[in-house]
Amino acid sequence: MVTGEQKKRTRASRAQASGHKTVSIRDVAEAAGVSVATVSRALSADSESFQMRAETRRHVLETSAALGYRPNDLARALLQQRTSVLGVIVPDISNPYYPGMVRGIEDVASLAGYRIVLCNTDREPERLNRYLETLVKSRVDGVLIAGGAADTAIDVGILDQYNTKVVVVGRHGMHCPSVQVDNVAAGEAITAHLIALGHRRIAFAGGPESSRTMQDRVEGYRRALTAHRLAYDESLVRAGEFDEDSGYGAARALTRLPDPPTAVVSVNDRVAVGVLAALHDEGVPVPGRMSVTGFDDVSFSSFLRPKLTTVAVPTYEIGSTAARLLVDRIPAGRSEGASEEDEGAGESRDGATMLPTKVVVRDSSGPPA
Question: Cα–Cα 20 to 30 A to 53, which of 14, 131, 173, 195?
Answer without folding.
Answer: 14
